[in-house]
Design brief:
The protein has a 7-stranded parallel β-sheet with strand order 3-2-1-4-5-6-11, with helices on both faces. The protein has a 4-stranded mixed β-sheet with strand order 8-7-9-10. It is of the alpha/beta class and 365 residues long. The chain starts with a strand and ends with a helix. It has 11 helices and 11 strands. α1 crosses α9, α3 packs across α4 and α10 packs across α11. Helices cover 34% and strands 20% of the residues. α4 links the parallel β4 and β5.
Length: 365
Amino acid sequence: MSAIKVAIIGVGNCASSLIQGINYYRSEKADDAIGLMHWDIGGYKPFDIDVVAAFDIDRRKVGLDVSKAVFSKPNCTRVFCPDIPISLVTVQMGRILDGVSDHMEEFTDEQTFLVADAPEPTKEEIVTALRESETEVMINYLPVGSEEATRFYADCALDAGVALVNNIPVFIASDPVWAKRFESQNIPIIGDDIKSQLGATITHRVLTDLFGKRGVKLERTYQLNTGGNTDFLNMLNRKRLASKKKSKTEAVQAVAGQRLENENIHIGPSDYVAWQKDNKVAFIRMEGKLFGDVPMNIELRLSVEDSPNSAGVAIDAIRCAKLALDRNQGGALNGPSAYFYKSPPKQFNDDEAYLMTEKFISEDS
């Protein structure tokens, strides 16, 4: 199979884990590979992904080879594959727009962005870069709350004719207007807001579904998350957090037997703890009633490396987008979106979404 040519928007921790993973699995065999949901998707292996373009706004990354930029500050994710070959792909200056929150100025250089002095490219220049690099799939790793910037890059994807994998909670695939634009141009889109491989949201969803299947009435629940990466720092701005909180909350509400009142459900990033770095800690509590109206509760603490957890899903989403391109299938991909993302165009429970995705992967063109 030919390589899947990918452009990355935002060379942060998640991009670092993805690129490390692509190289890590080059030395693995199917029988020995740990940590993948799929070794083969339509003939494409994890290492068949080739990053051909990358955009960022940090002066410590712009102008560097991608292989070096993924290890540059403020990235702080775990290094599990340190030996990444020189890619000969230089990180280009991107558009800033609303990609950097004003409150970031309050923190140290080690924690936040240092905006490059390079001139911002025009839309035409970005579209040209995508075409010249022969990009097939664009993956969006912008900070949460980058509403304007995400729409800008989605427009670039449409103009360049490349598939979009939208990993953040800006609603593109799940927005009927945007989804229609991708469908009318026969360009695939998968999104929105990635579910980690085994993170707080997927765990919370599975437990919520379990309550319903076992006849337990869920009465109230919360999910509190802390972390020390730039994503958590960015989300200290509560205005930027609105879409994230909505996305995570609806992902759980969608599988509840009966929707909870707003005051009985609280889900969202809660605080930034610098020393945690890329480690995310989630605290989940669920209270309900079982047989005879007898009360019960569950308390759970989950600790994961946030960015590798995301990359384990992104590596499948990219290959599904490429599969759709090969099949000349445009618009929102409902199965992969529902299985891989918190805010898909249409919500399904995880069992249904899994079967839909497996069917999508296995079906003939």
